[in-house]
Amino acid sequence: KKKKIIFSGAKRTLYVKKGESEIETIKGDRDSIGGKQKGDAKTFSNYEIKIPDNERLVLYLTTDGFGDQPDCNRKKVGSRLLVSLFEEYSSLDGIAQRDKLEQFLNKYTIAVDEEGKEIREAQRDDITVLGIIL
Fold first, then answer.
1. Domain span at residue 52?
2. In terms of Cα–Cα distance, which of 50, 45, 48, 54 is closest to 19?
């Protein structure tokens, strides 16, 4: 029997890296969980991801904090750059991926002013990246 994962997301995207293929993005539904609900209970879409037998599968789920983190010029990391980082780091083990993402954020948020003094853009939101390697 084939193994699979079922994903259902509320305003969050699941990033899926199978073997050497490009990262697939599975967008969650636009509805959120919680808050004041009006009317009927919400239903969310389910997405099936088949787990390959003989190749690596890496799943990434994040809060919006990483993509929304600005540099000193107020330019956000954004989802396109985040996906390229996942592409670049996905072959590494989990600890190495974490370290690389932290190093990237540290470099991304630092600039040097006219006086040669280092300035850092403050973290604006929670940043959570969940990576699962199968």
1. 4-34+41-133
2. 54
What's this model's pTM, rounded to 2 decimal places?
0.87
Could you report the average pLDDT of every consecutive run of 10 residues in the chain (134 residues)? 90 94 93 70 88 94 95 94 98 98 96 89 94 96
Listing DSSP states for 71-127 in one string gives -TTS-B-HHHHHHHHHHHHTTS-HHHHHHHHHHHHHHHTEEE-TTS-EEEPPP-S--
> 3-state DSSP: the chain helix, strand, coil percent, rounded to 5?
25, 30, 50
68 by DSSP, 3-state: which? helix
From residue 53, give the alpha-carbon distance in Å to each of 1, 56, 74, 94: 11, 9, 43, 20
Domains in the chain: how many in total?
1
pLDDT at position 62? 96
Q: Give the alpha-carbon dihedral of 18, 22, 24, 25, to 10 degrees.
A: 130
